[in-house]
């Protein structure tokens, strides 16, 4: 495996960087590894995401570099990054996987006579107030359509979009991804609040200050996610130390369960809090905690991959969500 700080091998004139790569032994799993490295920027994390060992991933990378006759990765301070040769291969690999997914979708539709399929990723708040009404309209108008929805944070969803696992995403472009890889149409702001259990000590006050909060356990989204950073920025702006006891999870179900059964505090979308608070179920034992400080998070939007056209069924849902956001 070549992980030099600077690429030292150039492609010679006459070398083929097209379908000849497959004739030379390039495999689909090689392309999966390149995309995993591009997404995770560490060989170990890329290997884990593919379910292989790090030595196996290193061997695969060495095979790719032998086939391409150029270095694919370069070592950097926090892991690895793709060289220009690796970036070229990754860009084409994403197109290949997109076309394979579209081929599978088209074949399924031809076999079943269905009205098409859509794969959507969304952060929680917009999924409730925009995606659900739009999905209801599409399902009513086109009974044969199949709609797949993943609810997660924007860090996960945008990478799934780049990997061609979604047609489009409702969320935000993370700071660590190149915005030129996407098209974004801003459609709204997501209000955020803090939730606690019914009977929580902080509910005895008219509103909680930032100073009241660090002494309690917190349930956060994973580090680096936009909602978590927004809350942490609110602490820093108020000159208050960050909570010391933190449970990290992207699961809203687990978040609600922990908050309901402990004195933990969690930030969630206001639409989620309103959906569960006081609804008569066990989840309804959740309460919104009034605070003296705002939690600001940047606008969300409809995100598509640059240079990738939406299939008709996905374009229909996209347009309905866009229309819903403007009513």
UniProtKB/TrEMBL annotation:
Lineage: Bacteria, Pseudomonadati, Pseudomonadota, Alphaproteobacteria, Hyphomicrobiales
Record organism: Sinorhizobium americanum
Keyword Transcription regulation: yes
Designated name of the protein: HTH-type transcriptional regulator GbpR
Keyword Transcription regulation assigned: yes
Protein keywords: DNA-binding, Transcription, Transcription regulation
Any GO MF annotation of the entry: DNA binding
GO cellular component terms listed in the entry, alphabetical order: cytosol
Family in the record: Belongs to the LysR transcriptional regulatory family.
PROSITE patterns recorded: HTH_LYSR (PS50931)
Gene that produces this protein: gbpR
InterPro entries linked: HTH-type_LysR_regulators, LysR_HTH_N, LysR_subst-bd, WH-like_DNA-bd_sf, WH_DNA-bd_sf
One Pfam family of this chain: LysR_substrate
């Amino acid at each position: 495996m070549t992980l030099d700080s600077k690429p030292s091998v150039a492609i010679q004139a006459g070398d083929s960087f097209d379908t000849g790569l497959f004739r030379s032994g390039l495999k689909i799993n090689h392309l999966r590894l390149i995309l995993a490295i591009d997404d995770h920027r560490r060989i170990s994390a890329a290997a884990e995401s593919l379910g292989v060992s790090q030595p196996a991933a290193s061997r695969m990378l060495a095979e790719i570099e032998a086939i391409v006759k150029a270095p694919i990765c370069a070592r950097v301070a926090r892991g690895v990054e793709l060289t220009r040769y690796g970036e070229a291969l990754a860009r084409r690999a994403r197109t290949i996987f997109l076309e394979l997914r579209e081929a599978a979708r088209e074949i399924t539709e031809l076999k079943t006579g269905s009205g098409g399929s859509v794969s959507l990723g969304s952060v929680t708040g917009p999924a409730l107030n925009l995606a659900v009404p739009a999905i209801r309209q599409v399902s009513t108008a086109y009974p044969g359509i199949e709609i797949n929805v993943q609810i997660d944070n924007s860090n996960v969803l945008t990478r799934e979009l780049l990997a061609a696992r979604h047609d489009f995403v409702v969320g935000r472009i993370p700071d660590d991804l190149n915005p030129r890889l996407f098209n974004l149409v801003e459609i709204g702001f997501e209000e955020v609040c803090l939730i606690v259990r019914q009977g929580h000590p902080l509910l005895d006050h008219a509103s909680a200050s930032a100073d009241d909060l660090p002494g309690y356990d917190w349930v956060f989204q994973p580090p680096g996610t936009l909602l978590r950073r927004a809350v942490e920025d609110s602490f820093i702006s108020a000159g208050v130390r960050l909570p010391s006891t933190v449970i990290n999870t992207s699961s809203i179900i687990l978040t609600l369960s922990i908050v309901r059964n402990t004195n933990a505090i969690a930030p969630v979308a206001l639409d989620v809090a309103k959906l569960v608070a006081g609804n008569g179920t066990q989840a309804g034992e959740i309460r919104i905690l009034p605070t003296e400080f705002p939690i600001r998070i940047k606008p969300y939007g409809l995100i598509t991959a640059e240079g990738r056209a939406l299939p008709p069924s996905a374009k229909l849902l996209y347009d309905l969500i866009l229309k819903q956001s403007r009513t």
